[in-house]
Amino acid sequence: MVLTPFLSRIAFFTLVALSTCAAAGAQNTQGNKSQPEQDDSDIALLWNMPLADLLQVRVTVASGNPESITEAAGTVTSYAAQDINKLGLNTLAQLASLTPGYSTYSNIGEHTLETRGQKAGGFDNNRHLLLIDGIPANHIRAYTAQVDHNLPLHFADQVDFLRGPASALYGVSAFYGVISINPALSNRRSSQPGTAVQVQASDNTSSIKFNRFINTDTAQGLISASHYQQQASLEPVASNPSQLNFDNQTSEFAFSKWQWDKGALTGLTAGAMYSSKKGGLGNFWADYSSDKNHITWKNFLAYAKYEKELSANLVSHSYIKYGYSSEDAEYYNATESERSAYSYPFHNYQAQTELHWHLEGAQHITAGINLDSRYGEAEDVEVAGVSRVTPKTPTVLTQSFYVQYKNEFDVLDGSLLTLGARLDNGSADSESYQQVSPRIAFVQKFNRWLSVKTLYAEALRGPSVKELGVNNEVRIEQPSVELQDLKPETIRSVELAPYIELNNWLMGLTFYSNKTSRYLARDWSQFGEYINIEQGFTSTGIELELNYAINKNVKLFANASSSKTEDNSGNAFLDVPRKKINLGWMWSMLGSAPINGAVTYTSVYDYANNLTNTNANNSAASLVNVNIAYPMNRHMQVGLNVTNVFDDRAYWLLNGEANVQMPAREARLDLTFSF
């Protein structure tokens, strides 16, 4: 009998589980029969915690200060570590698909975020700011946000999704939204097990994740790492047998952080992150594909943060960061007779300092300065078998100054006002821009259960190293062509959001309108240069988010989003679902059994498309996912995760045409150890 890889993994996991249970049973037989007391290494402390109480959650992503979700100066959805574990999710793309206003799709082997009816495609998933421990972590070349298995979530204590522009606080790239990941030790000290290891395997994927929590007399630390392997599905793209989906990937991740809270180094935090993803370029960008095609993304950053109390009401927060990113690719023509290859390295230096003044009453002022410098090195490349040199990119220098004022007034049950503005000065060789991004957030609390937010914000996304570098290459290769200087694209957003907070209920209803101008896009009809599209986009929509905690062990959630995005001529924004529904049930206990897990339902539908491909009519998707975990003993947990239970093979769209099928049903086994 020959075992498939999936059955082999089942057999292996079963053998390990039985051996561990037998050993645990033998120990219990030899010792007393009473239940042992819980200690810091008990796996239940990490995977069987009560569900997060959303009414007590504090988020900082909206204003830089801890706020409740109902009082935050923005629309935020927050996920605690215990909820992410019960959902069985590993990546930001998976978590975004459950978040109101967000969805994801796949193209060129990359997962891309859509927010409120707008998106950027493929390699340019660059309109969301990604923060890790408060430090910008986007890939340097194009501000690309990592949302795949090269940034797993096993090291996170909390993940926050801010919907809407936030350049008034964060500057360039906080365009459609901000995603903030707080590492696990940020909010805990001794409640974590010393070491946790998780192994996951399915028929097409395998991964191992590692967390090590360290406590000393003066500091606490985290060392986290992961390795992920995925085989290519090799499914036809748009029913074309010569174009297969090479969505294979090998992803690696490492993160380390030390935080001093006693002694001479009190207030200092030092950290580093490394991520790598090598993929097969998915559906490629032509009507053919090859198993020789691949692309590798690498991202490294090292940072130091320092917090200092200067007086009773004045605190400084500062950080310095060095980043290194690379993009390496190799691909062939249809006959595999011509090879193209490149390797682009990039560097980033960033420093920020800000002051927080706590004035009389609830008044609070934040003011800061940020300096950001990034560039790409000159490199040898090969295009269709011909070697040439890609010149050093222009150095993109951004100098930013920002201020924010917050106060609470005694009107009805309280009125919260947040005012802010940021000035960004960007330059690269002869090109430059200056942009002011304002924000106003007003939260009126009518009573203890009803509050209403009114929000206005503007944001920008300045030309990236990639966009300026590509245009610089075109100018060198086509000296007779005059390219226009690139300007930052901008977005203006207005939101109205009533919230109801009643006992164990939390409900938010958000109405929004976004206006995007000077959209930056690549013009493939000419020389592949980047241009500003003067035709603007307007997106309007509504989002409903509901959470209900039946008790500390059972929680229900539901959200729905509806958006409409058109340009100034009334043409719809293609490939984005205009409607989405999520339903979920999470639990920590089933009766008296310590079984934890979740069941979720996601429906995305109503795409704008061309309908010339018959499969485009099948773009609507209804997906059911199930995750169940059971602690075998104090130090081991087994789990089963099934995605797309009913095997709905809907299509992602590309330019309004059916392109890549969504993943088929998959069963994954999980083993988690703590010691």
TrEMBL record:
TonB-dependent receptor-like beta-barrel domain segment(s): 321-645
GO BP field: siderophore transmembrane transport
GO cellular component: cell outer membrane
Pfam families in alphabetical order: Plug (PF07715), TonB_dep_Rec_b-barrel (PF00593)
Entry superkingdom: Bacteria
Record bears the keyword Membrane: yes
GO terms of molecular function: siderophore uptake transmembrane transporter activity
Protein's UniProt keywords contain Transmembrane: yes
Record key words, sorted: Cell outer membrane, Membrane, Receptor, Signal, TonB box, Transmembrane, Transmembrane beta strand, Transport
Main location: membrane
Signal sequence coordinates: 1-22
Positions of the TonB-dependent receptor plug domain: 70-178
Subcellular location: Cell outer membrane
Membrane topology: Multi-pass membrane protein
Family, similarity comment: Belongs to the TonB-dependent receptor family. Hemoglobin/haptoglobin binding protein subfamily.
Protein name (database record): TonB-dependent receptor
Organism of derivation: Saccharophagus degradans (strain 2-40 / ATCC 43961 / DSM 17024)
